[in-house]
Amino acid sequence: MNGGGAVAQQNGGIQHNGAADLVRAREQLLTGAGTRNPRLDPESLRSALVDLFELWLTSKGNELGITADSGLAVIAVGGLGRREMLPYSDLDLVLLHDDVDPTLVAEVADQLWYPLWDAHIKLDHSVRTVPQALRVAADDMIAALGMLEARHIVGDEDLSNLLIGGVRREWRTGIRSRFDELIAQATARWQRSGQIAHRAEPDLKNGRGGLRDIQLLDALAIAQLTDAMPGLGPEVPGGGLRQAHRRLLDVRTELHRVAGRARDQLRAQDADEIGAALRIGDRFDLARTLSDSARTVSYSTEVGLRTAANALPRRGLARLRRMPVRRPLDEGVVEHSGEVVLARDARAQRDPGLILRVAAASAQTGLPMSATTLNRLSEDAPELREPWPKDALNDLLVLLGAGRGSIDAVEALDRTGLWGRLFPEWGAVRDLPPRDAVHTWTVDRHLMEAVAYAGGFSTRVARPDLLALGALLHDIGKGRAGDHSIVGAELATHIGRRLGLWPSDVRTLSAIVRHHLLLPDTATRRDLDDPATVRHVVEALDGDVGLLELLHTLAEADSLATGPGVWGDWKASLIGELVRRCKLVMAGEPLPQPEPIDPELLEQARAGGVHVTLAPGDGKHTYVVTVIAPDEPGLLSDAAGVLALHSLRVLSASLGEAGGSAINTFVVAPKFGDPPDAGLLRQELIRATTGALNLPAVLAKREAEAIGTGPGQYARAQPRLIWSPTSTPGQVILELRAEDRVGLLSRLAGAFAAAEANVRWAKVVTMGSSVVDAFCLDLGDADSAPLRDRIEKAVLDLVPKPAPAPPPGESDSAD
């Protein structure tokens, strides 16, 4: 082609003007000067700027001879290419040419670029042929991402389409080899710029949850790996990804207008003005809006990257691999392709507890929940009846007790509207920014951080379930009028009743929320040597030493979840001393006592033989298994092992003996499906007691097959053993607080039997993923410190323990 010959130098030289009118028009749009409409809203301003720059470029191009048959074309990338032109964004242009005299191309380029430079418009420009541009896109990831947004402006449209189509085609065919680099680039950007939702001065463009992430989703969509706007369900807070995108653009547009220049980082001193201009409110209202938008974008990006990774085309031998298996995790919940999904036979419309089971499985295993599964639950799952069934409450406790895994699981539920369905009160604290600079997180994220820390302290308290719920709700009163502790205590009462807690537990939960600041405020602001200080705390807690223990542990979790430096030796020592003095005044906790035995069970025990019965429990998925058999060493281990063998999780147990027979009652929940027949359990128990069934070997295999469990799975909390004397010589009570594992009760009973310690009675309780088990052990004349040490070591060898601390100077987490 030689259409470029139509381009001629005007007046025999390069014109270095022509863009002044463009700048004046831009300023009029920004200020409203000389127009009837004094101020355009951000979206209208962006649209007007796009039209303005396109008009100038089209006119200038036609003036320079860049026409349909010229062999020249101008394409826009960046903001103009996306039709998201901000007031002071760079103008990113590419001048394409095809077989045109290089001298003429240079002349056209100079006459196109110089007026823009002279007008002080920031310009990112290049002059290339289509093959050259394709090579650049193939070699440079950033250039490739930019060209994916390219749009024809003026000139030879076929030439522009040749480049645009070629870049997109090569992006789709080469995405498999470039995907890892794409992920690495995004991860490095997030590490540099941080999370928008939790930064005081966020980078709206490059931060995690920002505009670059939306462009990343667009690039994945062009590669046909995912949807650029993944659906987040019908009840999404804030209006979903499209609304989040528009809000981020609006804030960045106003940031340019306020700053009078290009800027990506929102400074604190500009926040009030921008919030007012957007009619959002003050800087706190703006921060809340940004948090909501950024977290929606961040979650959508995670879903998009995960979906894209699973959709990558397989090549070579990988094409011959079998499809991933569906591995059961819980009733109606399976793992598939690295995600938690619904089982094929799950009935979301009839199973309101399915939401919590899916989330609990995700939190425990560390596997993300499939976006399709969450959308289906959003659309189909019915509301939980009030009060909640016991199995739903237990699944909630499993979710909250999963450590840091609970944060991601709840975030996914919240971004898809499911968490707000379970806890409507959450809306007042969602994305609520802190008023104190010492706080790192929004209020809702702070609550989940506190839950995660509390999970690591669960063995310090006798009621880890109330500790987890207290951590979840301690600041739930924020965002409302009045003292948040008083308001929160009232909300906690309503929530506790909805969850189906016992009235006494509801009162304790309310007291935790009401007094969660009592210990730190008193210890750091009052004289501990003054008897009135201790009396003030004891009277406020009504002498409840269990509540004091919960508040002590929550104070540390709350402080650690607030931010760096909030919890230290000074604060810990003051609160610890206050608690010690309060305990001296309060009455100690009573020792565990055996449950009374039902007279009907006593009659069965007198008849002798082995009896196993199974009856429905209080919950939809709970059952009561009663085992009566001659009281012989190893019976408890065999009975608990048979239950574990059939995937029956022991939620609680009452173990006793009368007349030479053991009477053991277990409340169990099947992991999947229906429980086995009582006759089968009896048959297996007889096989185990006679040695025909090797329970330890079978249980070890089951545990190795389970996801997220097993001897290699680290606990979040350090196990704790508490020895207490009884009034009977030779008998002691051993209380174990630890995290659960497959067949734990069977293993513990086996350890006691190996040590020739007879279990006189026991009370076993599972709260979520934590166990609080009390065993009355008859050690007889052999009771001694060495024997207790051996028993303690044997028990600790069986329970999950936290990961060992890294060597000095090494980090336990990757950058």
Automatic annotation (TrEMBL):
Gene Ontology biological process terms, A to Z: regulation of nitrogen utilization
Domain of life: Bacteria
Record has Hydrolase as a keyword: yes
Activity regulation information from UniProt: Uridylyltransferase (UTase) activity is inhibited by glutamine, while glutamine activates uridylyl-removing (UR) activity.
Record domain HD: where: 443-544
UniProt keyword annotation of Repeat present: yes
Domain remark from Swiss-Prot or TrEMBL: Has four distinct domains: an N-terminal nucleotidyltransferase (NT) domain responsible for UTase activity, a central HD domain that encodes UR activity, and two C-terminal ACT domains that seem to have a role in glutamine sensing.
Organism for this UniProt entry: Nocardia mangyaensis
Known EC number: 2.7.7.59, 3.1.4.-
Family the entry assigns: Belongs to the GlnD family.
Molecular function in Gene Ontology: [protein-PII] uridylyltransferase activity; phosphoric diester hydrolase activity
Keyword vocabulary terms for this entry: Hydrolase, Magnesium, Multifunctional enzyme, Nucleotidyltransferase, Repeat, Transferase
Gene: glnD
Stated name of the protein: Bifunctional uridylyltransferase/uridylyl-removing enzyme
SUPFAM superfamilies for the chain: ACT-like, HD-domain/PDEase-like, Nucleotidyltransferase, Nucleotidyltransferase substrate binding subunit/domain
Uridylyltransferase: annotated segments: 1-328
SMART domains per the UniProt record, alphabetical: HDc
All residue ranges annotated as the ACT domain in the record: 624-700, 733-805
Xref: Pfam families: GlnD_UR_UTase (PF08335), HD (PF01966)
